[in-house]
Amino acid sequence: MAETATIFEVGPRDGLQNEKAQIATADKIALVDMLSASGLRKIEVTSFVSPRWVPQMADAAEVMAGITRAPGVDYAVLTPNAKGFEAARAARADEIAVFASASEGFSRKNINCSVAESLARFEPVMIAALAHGIPVRGYVSCITHCPYDGAVAPEAVLDVAEKLLAMGCYEVSLGDTIGAATPDTVSALLDVLLARIPAEKLAGHFHDTHGRALDNIDVCLAAGLRTFDAAVGGLGGCPYAPGAAGNVASEAVLGLLSERGFDTGVDAARLAEATRFARSLRT
Ligand code: HMG
Ligand code: MG
Q1: CATH (domain of 183)
Q2: Ligand 1 within 6 A of 56 CB?
Q3: pTM score of the predicted model
Q4: How confident is the model at residue 112 (pLDDT cuts 50, 70, 90)?
Q5: Which ipTM was obtained for this model?
């Protein structure tokens, strides 16, 4: 039997968060429902963040209330703090994600606090989530480069990743926020991380700014990682990371994983329908 791999769909969140014109709530809901129908098992739907910081995600509660939940699909949301967690819980999110950075510059621009302050802020979120049986995913952004601080040392990524796992995150997603990683830098990073963290606790989150995302995923696959974040239609960008182009496209990751012999459970034809719709939402 083929080995399985997971595409963690982040298009409705990471993909759409950067769109300038407000996308209709009904269209966001329709996109999530099409993604559910394609066989994806993990879908990051939205973020419970400050609407002043990310206006596009201001309808998070309405989107969560409007989607049709497919059995076996986990609907995930981002939560930067306790306020976000309470809203996520009220919206019946299946899992939440806290998001930290390996670099100070991005942490300050993105969530208005230092890396250490962000981890302290996540502590009560983690405790409450775990008390309610809600799994928490952790992100580490800027795994090789920060748009503000430049090159990032693998040890800085290891430090934050280990702290997130020690706090109770079930998995840490490694964010190449501005798509600056290369197979060489990813390989050097994984050497450091995998000496301390099992591969099944790590996921790859690559933006395709310089067209290297699939090569970077290949390096991760060879190192034993089996979960990859991707956005349908290659939607994406981060409002607080200039130069962060779209996430690697889910359909391209599906192609790569299939070519490498992995089973993802995703139906390519149905995903293609979602891709067409996602592209039509771009402004
Ligand atoms: P702050 O201004 O320091 O927060 O922002 P504050 O606690 O002082 O609150 C300011 C205002 O925001 C208050 O409202 C709060 O109530 C409100 P006011 O009283 O002034 O009217 N507020 C909230 N409202 C709704 N939901 C909340 C919330 N929290 C506070 N959860 C804060 C700090 C973290 C809130 C802000 O910086 C923020 O929301 N940042 C989010 C930025 C973001 O979403 N970035 C994109 C996601 S990260 C990413 O894309 C990278 C990733 O893809 C991986 C990768 O690629 O590397 C994950
Ligand atoms: Mg991202």
Answers
A1: 3.20.20.70
A2: no
A3: 0.97
A4: very high
A5: 0.98
Quick one: pLDDT at residue 38? 98
In a domain? residue 115: yes
With respect to residue 129, please indicate whether it lies within any of the assigned structural domains: yes
* Helix%, strand%, coil% for the chain, nearest 5: 45, 20, 35
* Separation of CA 222 and ligand 1 centre (Å): 36
Residue 1, domain member (yes or no): no
Query: How far, in Å, is the centroid of ligand 2 from the Cα of 207?
Result: 7
Contact 83 CB / ligand 1 (< 6 Å): yes
Q: How many structural domains compose the chain?
A: 1
> Which residues have CB atoms below 5 A from the ion given as ligand 2?
14
Residue with the smallest CA separation from ligand 1 atom 56 is: 177
User: Each residue of 229-278: pLDDT tens digit?
Assistant: 999 999 986 667 675 668 999 999 999 999 999 999 999 999 999 999 99
Measure 196 CA to ligand 1 centroid, in angstroms: 31
Is 169 an active-site residue? no
Contact 169, 98 (CB under 8 A): yes
For residues 167 and 189, what is the distance between their CA atoms, to the nearest angstrom? 22
* Whether the CB of 175 sits within 6 Å of ligand 1: yes
Classify residue 136: in a domain, yes or no: yes
**3-class SS of residue 269:** helix
Instruction: Tell me if 85 CB under 6 Å of ligand 1.
Output: no
pLDDT in tens, 188-233: 999 999 999 999 999 999 999 999 999 999 999 999 999 999 999 9
Supply the range of the domain harboring residue 226.
6-281
Residue nearest ligand 1's atom 6 by CA:
50
